[in-house]
Design a protein that fits this description.
The protein has 99 residues and is mainly α. The chain contains 3 helices and no strands. It has helices at residues 5-27, 34-78, 85-93. Keywords: Membrane, Transmembrane, Transmembrane helix.
């Protein structure tokens, strides 16, 4: 059975349309509506804000604890009797992270 070029093009076009319709019918439920997208975005944004707020609280707590420890160490250095006043002054005047 031999087909003419016109028949071959017609059969190919018809099969392409059929495959496209089948693929569309199978995958059309995978799309998300605008309302669903906005709902998901709102949920993700609120979750992200909650996480960021928790991290901000943790950072503030760590900062307060670090400041307390820093003041305690400075107090120990000030009241150390074995250390010379020059060494104490060098340590107490040193900036955080080095000179």
């Amino acid at each position: 059975m031999t087909f003419t070029p016109l028949e071959t093009a017609g059969i190919t076009g018809f099969m392409s349309v059929m495959v496209a319709l089948i693929v569309h019918a199978l995958t059309k439920r995978n799309y998300v509506s605008h309302g669903q997208c906005e709902e998901r975005r709102t949920h993700v944004c609120s979750t992200l804000q909650a996480v960021q707020a928790g991290h901000a609280e943790l950072r503030q707590d760590l900062k307060e604890r670090t400041n307390t420890l820093f003041r305690m160490v400075r107090g120990l250095i000030v009241h150390d009797k074995d250390m010379s006043p020059d060494v104490k002054a060098d340590i107490l005047n040193e900036t955080p992270g080095g000179k």
